[in-house]
Amino acid sequence: MAGTPDFDLYRPSEEHDMLRETVRSLAEAKIAPYAAAVDEEARFPQEALDALVGSDLHAVHVPESYGGAGADALATVIVIEEVARVCASSSLIPAVNKLGSLPVVLSGSEELKQKYLRPLAQGDAMFSYCLSEPDAGSDAAGMKTKAVRDGDHYVLNGVKRWITNAGVSEYYTVMAVTDPEKRSKGISAFVVEKSDEGVSFGAPEKKLGIKGSPTREVYLDNVRIPADRMIGEEGTGFATAMKTLDHTRITIAAQALGIAQGALDYAKGYVKERKQFGKPIADFQGVQFMLADMAMKLEAARQLTYAAAAKSERVDGDLTFFGAAAKCFASDVAMEVTTDAVQLLGGYGYTRDYPVERMMRDAKITQIYEGTNQVQRIVMARNLP
Fold first, then answer.
1. Cβ neighbours for 310, distance < 8 A, ≥ 6 positions apart
2. Would the pLDDT of 8 be above 60?
3. From the candidates 133, 217, 313, 370, which is the catalytic residue?
4. Is the pLDDT of residue 12 over 90?
5. Most CB contacts within 10 A, which of 28, 29, 174, 215?
6. 370 flagged as catalytic
7. Whole-number percent of the chain with pLDDT over 90
């Protein structure tokens, strides 16, 4: 999986196809059986983590030079897509590991990369990303968390909200204000460890979907960390955060694709078995048209997402537009496809005895996190190719 791929019109290579088969088999055998219970009990999908780590699929983006698989951006998308097809909560393990660690990959010192990427690649630790705050969501530059220099250390104080996998992850990329006068150019990035004195977590949020992925506040109370844990130079943290999102919004698109594909697959099977008026409902044109529209929109979203992945790998100049477009379009499609899947199952689709209602609930968050789709449209408008 190492090296820069030669994408032919953004089509996956034979190696990517083999990876998809591997991940799908693993997901169906070792993740899918627990998906309903993970949602029902709102518990972390430990079975999924164990399976992904056991197959070296938990953080495939980590470069080979730090013990990782060195997967390209499209391979990472395929892993997330196939896991999300059976369990959206579990797909946040590889997705958030990339989100949390990518600032280190993009801007960290060699020492930071060696120290934090190796344990991640080995499956000894997970990584989370701390940008949002109670009063700084879409306006992330309005954050209040502060980092004050004190000799060879920084002291961090503040609250981060909506942090995915908080409490489970060992490492956290934290954005904090080092110069309040400079707004976004006065924000710096740091690696904070779960074991650092002064780090604590709020209660898990009670959410509509992705219930198996804990979302909690992260409290920083006089957290004193070595200055060499700063990612990049002082004042470059916000720029690193935005560069990170250009790449990782594509992983949310991948998650949306997987959720939608899982719902479509289930609905296709159901309508062939469900009979009304003496024949399978799949024989009715109204149902056929629904399925055709679902499949058409999903494939359009997939092609846009794969194109964005290719641009992420090459770091093309129009990556910002394509990353936002892929995330926005794929998540809107996922919400539509899962809603239609519930409709195709009728009353059964509305019950927890069938997985499509879970998929519909899980799909909703893809329109919200890593920038709402309204924000994505602003980003696209400002970066029209």
1. 5, 7, 10, 73, 74
2. no
3. 370
4. no
5. 174
6. yes
7. 96
